[in-house]
Design goal:
With 275 residues, the protein is mostly helical. It folds into 2 domains: 7-129, no CATH class; 140-275, 3 Solenoid (Pectate Lyase C-like), CATH 2.160.20. Helices cover 37% and strands 2% of the residues. It contains 6 helices and 2 strands. The chain has helices at 10-25, 33-42, 47-70, 75-105, 110-124, 253-258, and strands at 215-217, 235-237. The chain has a two-stranded parallel ribbon with strand order 1-2. The chain is elongated and about 80 Å long. The relative contact order is 0.08.
Length: 275
Amino acid sequence: MKLSDNRLPEEYAQEVFTLAARLYAEQTQSYSVDELIDAGTEAKIPPEFMEQAFHEIQLQRIENERKMQKNKGSKPFLIGVAIAIPILAVLAIAGSLLSKNATSNVANNQTASTADVETVAPGASETQIANSNVAGNPFKCEGLNLEGENLRDENFRNADCHNGELANVDLSGVNMENANLSGADLRDANLSGANLRNVNLTEADLTGANLSGTILENANLSKTNLQEANLSNAKFKDTNLAQADLEGAKIDILGAKKNQSNLSNAILPDGTNHP
């Protein structure tokens, strides 16, 4: 019997598609986001699942970069980057074929179709995509320990890093406008020259952080720990520093007040309390 006449079991088909993706990666290693979205649409995967997969890929990439920095010369990471996007696209097409097969075997059974979608999406989350701002989604810190990472190339505009683990990170010069960093651990972080306009840093720990030259217009730093922080040449305007701890910090208090900043009940650099 010819090979084309054989009916392959589902698990075997998945192995074939995965191997095909690896082989195809030798020829093509680049896909646009639109192409992947189209592949997901062909596989009857709702766009929100594709976007979730993109986000999880982004987080996995950062975790792998952190591990690679600790274990230089890690070949598995490089191989993963080489085959990541082709596997995502091919698995999406595989999901389409498997979904059609399930539909033909179980008429009008929407539960089976849903199960097919769920088996494709988690697989995609294990791949890695080099684009740090996939589909324009805001950066999220949930579940990540980013301590000591260089994040200068990430898009932190509108980022959600509530309670993020960001001690000693390098975010110098990064646009972080409208980001939520409330409760984040930013001890000794480098934020020099960053755009922190409208950023929420309520109750964040910025002990020893470098915020020199940052834009702090309309930023909320209330109840923030800024002990020994460097805020020299920071641009204050309507900045909320109420109840912030500024003991030992380098900051132009008069300049901040002149630009309508709120320092009520803050601890000043000399350890005294502002009225």
